[in-house]
Design goal:
Blueprint lengths: L1 H20 L2 E3 L12 H6 L3 E2 L3 E5 L6 E4 L2 H5 L8 E3 L3 E5 L5 E5 L11 E7 L25 H21 L1
Parallel strand pairs: 1-3, 2-8
Antiparallel strand pairs: 3-6, 4-5, 4-7, 7-8
Helix pairs in contact: 1-4
Bound molecules: copper (II) ion.
Copper (II) ion binds next to loops.
């Protein structure tokens, strides 16, 4: 009885810690990896952090080609692909702060807009360049870090669960 309780606690803690540190982004949201999806709108609403994962979900008509450069991306040069994925459910780990380019390798699909540019930032979420040119009044600074408290709350919850494992 007690052993299964502790196992449950460990599983819950693992789930919360994973949520606190990594996010899985389903490319294109509920529409998935498809010609009809507006990938610019989708990606601009996301924050990609180191450690996060992309998941491409698509029909057998499609595949995922990673392109090596901005120019290959702009020209839809899928023949230059540095990596190709297929099978309908492809996961890509974002391992460093960089910009990566993905397109569908099926003829004509990239030209129809089936491509997405992913810019990954450092996991701590700190901006890569200095912000603002003037001193911000103290009263408005609270609104700039909306993602921070939630992250800290999840981390804190995970820590509390680990503490509970040792004292229960
Ligand atoms: Cu396609």
């Amino acid at each position: 009885m007690e052993t299964s309780y502790r196992l449950l606690v460990v599983v819950i803690a693992a789930v919360f810690l994973r949520q606190a540190f990594a996010t899985k982004h389903t490319v294109g949201g509920s529409q998935g990896w498809d010609e009809s999806t507006d990938f610019d709108s989708w990606s601009s609403a996301q924050t990609f952090k180191v450690g996060d994962e992309l998941e491409f979900k698509y029909s057998p008509l499609h595949n995922v080609a990673e392109l090596p450069s901005e120019s290959a991306f702009k020209q839809c040069d899928v023949s230059a692909a540095s990596n190709s994925l297929s099978g309908g459910d492809s996961k890509v780990k974002l391992t460093k702060a960089s910009t990566r380019y993905f397109a569908c390798g099926t003829s004509g699909h990239c030209e129809q807009g089936m491509k997405v540019k992913i810019t990954t930032v450092a996991a701590d979420g700190s901006p890569s360049s200095p912000t603002g040119s003037s001193t911000t009044p103290a009263a408005t600074t609270g609104s700039t870090s909306a993602a921070g408290p939630r992250h800290q709350l999840l981390s804190f919850f995970g820590l509390m669960v680990f503490v509970a494992i040792f004292f229960v």
